[in-house]
Each structure stands twice: as C-alpha cells, then as structure tokens.
Amino acid sequence: MSNRLINWFRFASPHTFYPLAGKMIPWFWTLAAVFGAAGLWLSFFVAPTDATQGEGYRIIFIHVPTSWMSMFIYMVMAGWAAMGLSLNARLSSMMAQALAPTGALMAFLSLWTGAFWGKPMWGTWWVWDARLTSELILFFLYLGFMSLQASIDDPRRADKAGAIVALVGVINVPIIYFSVKWWNTLHQGASVSINKSPSMAATMLWGMLLMALCLWMYSIAIALTRVRAIILEREAHTEWVKHLKEVSP
Amino acid sequence: MNWNSPAEFFAMGGYALYVWGSFGVCALAFLAEPFLIRKRHIDIVRTLRRQVSAEKLEMEHK
Question: Whole-angstrom distance between the N-terminal and C-terminal Cα of chain B?
C-alpha cells in the first residue's frame, strides 16, 4: 500500500492554487444550492408559526446565519492574515483579502435583517444595545480593513498593515458573542438554546443550521472566485499568468 | 403545511414587509455579489489579453 503524502505546500503558491480553486468552485455552488433549497423549505413550509411572534419570527432563518457568518468569516480572515504576516505567504494574504467583502456583506445583512426584525417586535429599527453596537463595529472593522488595504499601493505592505488591523479587531468577536450575557440587553439570548416544545425547536434548529451551511458553502465559493481574480490582478506580471489559456488562447 | 393559499404565504401573517424585506435584500445581495466578481474576473482577463497581444506585436516589429 502506498502511503504517499500530499505536499500541501504545493498549493500554497498562487500558480498551483489558481486552477485548483477553479475546479472546487462548482462543487461549493452545488452544495450551497442544495443546503439553501432544503433550508428555505424548512424555514417557510415545515417550521410552525411562532406562538408569540407569529410569522414574523421567520426572519430568524436568515438573521442568525448571516450573523454567525459575519463573525466566523472574520475569524477565518484574521487567521489567513496572521498566516500571511508570519509566514510571509502571498496566497494567505490574498485569501484574507478575498474574504473581507463577503464578511462585510454578512455583517451588513445581519444588521439589516435585525432592523427588519426589531421594528415589528421591539418597535424600533435600531437601538444602541451592546450586541447591535458590537456587530456594527464588526462591519466597520471589515470596511476599515478593506479601505486600508486599498489605500496602500504596495500590495505586500498593504497585506501587513491589513493583517494588523484584522488581528486587533479579533477582540470584538467574543464581545459580540457574549454581549447578551455580559450586558443586560434588549437583544435576546443565544438562539440555539431556545426552550420550546422539542419538535418546534428541532425544525427551527435544522432550518437555521441548513441556512447557515448554505451561507458557509456560498462564502467558500465566493471567496475562491474572488481570490482567483485577485491572483490574476496581483500576479499579472508573471509568466504563468501570461501563459494561461484564458489569457493567451 | 402552514399555508392554505399563495396569498396567505406572501402575506406572512401581516409581517410581509419585514419577512420579505429581510429575505429579499439577502437574495439580491447573494445574486449581485457573484455577478460583480464575475465582472472583476472578466475585466482583469481582458486587460491581461491586451497586454499579451501588445507584447506579441512589439516582438514582431523588432
């Protein structure tokens, strides 16, 4: 039996990662579509009406997944940025750069859907509650990371400056997560521990999990697509890019 | 099944604005983002092609 080791470092070069990412993207789109269809079906047709919030609670199925993803993408982005900083790996920094706009979008959608949920239930689009405020700071951290990188011409210096901002901002993620415990806020506690009748909690939980999986797969597909464009932009001077089939047919 | 008619589904028990306002904007965002990245990819490939053919022309005229 051959026990050959895959040389993972081979894929750490943009040259080898570019075609690999291209092959992976359709698979993640397929998974996103499957999870999304199942999640939406559960969210709208299986999960029963809520006793207190009526049909309005169905916003949970998009609000919670976008909020989770906004925090999770930030952690992954900071991880890639740290790797780019410590190992001086171009591709890691490009991955961080590719994740930032999607993370910002998730943070925005979390705030947007939260406002559309807060209006009918709390009677206000926005309050300066600990969780809402820390999520808004997360959104600004993404924007800060992106605009700082965009403002520095030398890409490697931009990577380093961005990585430091990303790493400092990591402190905000546990603050968001635990804000509902640490402060007495208007925002309700963690969704996954809702104590209602077991059958209800199960379909609601599955709806949320499937929607979160859908957004997870979507984010991977998007980040890989974006990193391919970033690779071409940043490696434009290299021979391998000039010899790509799509560039010189 | 929660709904007796499509109209009831779209009415969302009176929360139509909030439920569809949330899901609608998310759907738009998740459609727009891949489209914009696709455009970014096409733009850079076009620039690179132009660069490569310019280099080829230069070589031929030397």
Answer: 75
